[in-house]
Amino acid sequence: MGKIGKIKFLEIEFKNMKKHSKNKAIAIFEGKQIRRFWDEKKELWHFAVMDVVEILAQTDRPRKYWNDLKTKLKAEGSEVSEKIGQLKMQATDGKK
Which residues contact 65 (CB under 8 A, 6 or more apart)? Predict the structure, then answer.
């Protein structure tokens, strides 16, 4: 499955999440963990971008991939949204 197909599949999976899964902090996609957080007030999922980038780009260095992508987009005249915020999420080693 190509990257576009994976993105569409992820989009469908996120939309189809059942209410009972709101208390689970980890989602599994292609055998990899994606950290997530459910915002009760907004009724909205927040996902760890680095986890998604790691899966879609098939890289073990998602932060470097993300930074290189942002640099490339900026050089092409595109911009990454300024509205991307960071949430403290627990890492696989237990650190926040």
Answer: 53, 57, 59
